[in-house]
Structures are given as C-alpha cells and as structure tokens.
Amino acid sequence: MPIFEYECGGCGAAFEMLVRSADVKVACPGCGSGEVAKQFSSFAVAAAERFTSSVGTGCGCAPTG
Ligand SMILES: [Zn+2]
Question: Which DSSP string corresponds to 2-63?
C-alpha cells in the first residue's frame, strides 16, 4: 500500500497518509486544512525494497564426521 507524505500549507505540519489512490482528498490531521502538498518520500520505497529476505542460503560447509 502506498504511503504518501504530505506537508500542510496551513500549519506546516508534515504527516504521512496511507492512501489507495493518488487522487484522494487529504486533509491535515492537525488543523483540518485541505491545503496539503504531497511529498514524494523515498523512505517508504526504500523500506519495501529492504524486505528482500535472503536468509536460508547456507554455505553447506557442515563438518561431517
Ligand atoms: Zn495543518
């Protein structure tokens, strides 16, 4: 799910909103103003890309004796 970062033009508060569509109406949770500017945050994408599980690939160098 896409998480967009907004910055309120009224009070200047920055907040993140989980929206389904990029065309959805977003209001500031602080002052309720609709004058919000959408920021393109990269942390959400970076966090998603970090979820690549590479665990389980053992080297198989177990000593057998
Ligand atoms: Zn605000």
Answer: -EEEEEESSS--EEEEE-SSTT-----TTT--S-EEEE--SHHHHHHHTT---TT-------
